[in-house]
Design brief:
Blueprint (H helix, E strand, L loop, with lengths): L1 H16 L9 H15 L4 H16 L4 H15 L5 H17 L3 H14 L4 H43 L1
Helix pairs in contact: 2-3, 3-4, 3-5, 4-5, 5-6, 5-7, 6-7
């Protein structure tokens, strides 16, 4: 019985906390990536520069700060047009999907996750992102229905109370 209660409590906690499995990046990680980009820009080779920019993009879209997420989205969208490798395209689409997920644009995030899955149908990260999106949309729908039902009940209660006072 205790195990069932614990499992129920964990699921309720996860529901209200929005417990997705997508990692977060803190400011220290972002600052480290920015320093790495600056160092790579001093070199002659484009490969280290591109790799450090991808790491920075990853850190930005995984940030808790919306301005970082927006910056990461802008960087990825700007670089997507020049991407020729399907693997790099898949990675950038996924990171864009994470960025849009973090910014609350679940429709765009879902489209990008599906594009990733067209390139690699069994890719776990894209499957995980798609599930996180679906869970978030379902949770928001349930919460919205609950809020609406509460509002209707309060209005109906107010009308009933007003009618009862008139009699």
């Amino acid at each position: 019985m205790d195990a069932k209660f614990s499992k129920f409590f964990d699921s309720v906690t996860s529901f209200f906390s929005g417990g997705d499995q997508i990692p977060w990046a803190d400011q220290d990680i972002i600052l480290g990536c920015e320093r790495e980009v600056a160092e790579a820009a001093k070199g002659d080779s484009d490969e280290p520069k591109n790799e450090s920019i991808m790491r920075l993009s990853w850190a930005l879209v995984h940030s808790k700060r919306s301005e970082d997420v927006q910056r990461g989205i802008a960087m990825l969208e700007a670089s997507l047009a020049t991407t020729s490798s399907p693997l790099q395209r898949r990675e950038k689409l996924y990171l864009l999907g994470v960025g849009y997920y973090r910014s609350g644009d679940y429709s765009r995030s879902r489209q990008l996750a599906e594009q990733c899955l067209e390139i690699a149908p069994d890719w776990r990260q894209a499957l995980s992102l798609k599930k996180a999106i679906e869970d978030k949309v379902a949770k928001d729908g349930v919460i919205g229905i609950g809020i609406t039902a509460t509002g209707v009940a309060l209005i109906a209660g107010g009308i009933a109370a007003a009618l009862a006072r008139k009699k």
